[in-house]
């Protein structure tokens, strides 16, 4: 498969790095398509289109792919697919030995030939002039000192930011890649060895400094470097929080509480998860109970704040969780809930509390009343409705359960696939088709609702085709192409023809012309596709003869 010429060298190299680290999973390949999941800032779905076994185009869910034709995740999938096509003994993509490989082999041979005295003398000279190697060597031999070493480590963190930022402190897209790589290397080569040596107090101080720097950095991280670093740090935090002694754990706890009381940017959720995932001893649970109550009261003092609702919901949720974890007496729980029933999250919690204590009637009434209190908030309406339908199901109220599901599907969470499936399962097979038609009609009354996933679920391919053809652009066509193509190839090809001609009328850049050619290549994979493409190309040659870039790109088509 010849594909590497399409990718800039830097993107291909990053993709190879992801492939070699095993970040590509769930790879599936057919004659026309490769799909896989690639781990980056999060899990990204990648689709590679093929024609006659050759690379044609690719799509990825990552932010970078929104504004660029190719990304490292696509390259990683292509490297994995290339490896899968080779014999088992050659599954690793072959690469010529790099300079680093040769240097490593040379260094190993030199050390083997050197005497102990020579090695010692050489190390003394090198370590005296390289602070980075000195820190690594001290860690390797187990000689670290928090007081003397901490300033050096913090300076190293600062240097990661300063060396990649411009005069204004901004890290642009090009520098962001180096910054991410250097920071991950720092965590792996300098901080991880400290974890291995049990220097948890020192690791905590380094991570705390890094996290606060990350939270305030001004950077174009289209490839997700920021969250990649945060996620890599989480594993180190876990080691500290599970293995450190009580004094260090208390230091971390106090630091987390202090930071979460301040406005934060991207690290807030991570610090929040650390605080409420760990610290499970009774003393820490009591401390978290008091802390969450304090934070909840503090938020209530600022009802005009732009994030008042979100902060209220967040700290209230944590406080309710801590009440449960602390095994507070039922009387206190009930008193708190009754005093705060105007807050939807409290009402939802209290209804669950009532169900657990077999007070079903009270729970249902709380939820029904709750729906009347949040009529202007569809998200909260859906929350109350979901809990109410579950309560009806628990009580065996089949009719009320179905009614609540119906309302969810037609009003609060239109066309939700899981709810649709749940309602289907509540009906006998023979009754479902009639119910389904009424339901789809009711759901369709919502503006901008997308019924296509439900058509797929129900195998209503005629309706799916009609919706795809009616939709603007090619996104829906390419989303459902593999499902529809075996049955409706002529209709899909006609849709391609219509859309690609419309795109050509407004296209002026070479990149857009390349996109048009990639679409034409997809069309060649259809029966009668070649003749349609030939007609389109001929028409464009007549219509746009002065578009030299367009003519150049069209000449690359193999017709």
From TrEMBL:
Limits of the SWIM-type domain: 44-82
GO molecular function: zinc ion binding
UniProt entry keywords in alphabetical sequence: Metal-binding, Zinc, Zinc-finger
Record-linked InterPro entries: Znf_SWIM (IPR007527)
Protein name: SWIM-type domain-containing protein
Organism this protein belongs to: Lactiplantibacillus pentosus (Lactobacillus pentosus)
């Amino acid at each position: 498969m010849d594909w590497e010429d399409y990718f800039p060298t830097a993107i291909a190299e990053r993709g190879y790095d992801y492939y070699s680290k095993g970040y590509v999973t769930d790879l599936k390949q057919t004659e026309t398509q490769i799909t896989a999941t690639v781990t980056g800032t999060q899990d990204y779905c990648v689709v590679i289109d093929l024609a006659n076994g050759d690379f044609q185009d690719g799509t990825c869910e990552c932010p970078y792919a929104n504004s660029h034709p190719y990304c490292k995740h696509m390259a990683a999938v292509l490297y994995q697919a290339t490896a899968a096509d080779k014999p088992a003994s050659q599954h690793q993509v072959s690469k010529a030995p790099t300079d680093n490989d040769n240097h490593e082999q040379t260094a190993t041979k030199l050390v083997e030939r050197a005497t102990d005295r020579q090695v010692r003398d050489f190390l003394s000279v090198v370590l005296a002039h390289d602070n980075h190697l000195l820190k690594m060597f001290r860690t390797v031999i187990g000689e670290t000192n928090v007081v003397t070493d901490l300033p050096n480590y913090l300076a190293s963190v600062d240097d990661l930011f300063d060396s990649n930022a411009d005069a204004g402190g901004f890290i642009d897209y090009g520098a962001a890649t180096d910054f991410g790589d250097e920071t991950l290397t720092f965590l792996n080569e300098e901080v991880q060895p400290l974890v291995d040596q049990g220097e948890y107090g020192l690791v905590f101080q380094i991570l705390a400094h890094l996290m606060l720097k990350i939270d305030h950095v001004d950077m174009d991280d289209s490839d997700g470097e920021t969250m990649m670093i945060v996620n890599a740090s989480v594993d180190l935090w876990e080691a500290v929080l599970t293995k450190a002694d009580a004094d260090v754990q208390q230091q971390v706890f106090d630091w987390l509480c202090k930071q979460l009381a301040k406005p934060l940017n991207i690290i807030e959720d991570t610090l929040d998860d650390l605080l409420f995932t760990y610290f499970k001893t009774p003393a820490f649970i009591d401390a978290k109970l008091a802390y969450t109550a304090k934070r909840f009261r503090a938020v209530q003092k600022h009802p005009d704040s732009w994030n008042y609702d979100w902060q209220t919901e967040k700290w209230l949720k944590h406080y309710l969780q801590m009440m449960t974890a602390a095994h507070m007496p039922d009387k206190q729980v009930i008193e708190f809930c009754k005093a705060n029933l105007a807050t939807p999250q409290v009402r939802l919690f209290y209804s669950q509390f009532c169900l657990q204590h077999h007070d079903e009637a009270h729970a249902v009434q709380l939820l029904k009343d709750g729906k009347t209190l949040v009529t202007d908030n569809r998200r909260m309406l859906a929350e109350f409705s979901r809990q109410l339908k579950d309560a009806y199901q628990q009580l065996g109220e089949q009719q009320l359960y179905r009614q609540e599901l119906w309302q969810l599907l037609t009003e609060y969470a239109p066309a939700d696939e899981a709810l649709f499936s749940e309602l289907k399962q509540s009906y006998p097979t023979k009754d479902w088709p009639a119910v389904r038609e009424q339901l789809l009609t009711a759901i369709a009354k919502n503006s901008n609702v997308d019924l296509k996933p439900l058509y797929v679920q129900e195998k209503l391919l005629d309706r799916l085709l009609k919706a795809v053809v009616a939709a603007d652009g090619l996104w829906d066509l390419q989303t459902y192409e593999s499902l529809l193509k075996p049955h409706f190839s002529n209709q899909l090809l006609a849709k391609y023809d219509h859309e690609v001609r419309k795109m050509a009328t407004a296209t002026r850049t070479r990149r857009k012309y390349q996109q048009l050619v990639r679409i034409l290549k997809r069309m060649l994979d259809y029966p009668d596709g070649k003749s349609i493409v030939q007609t389109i190309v001929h028409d464009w040659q007549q219509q746009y003869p002065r578009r030299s870039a367009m003519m150049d790109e069209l000449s690359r088509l193999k017709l």
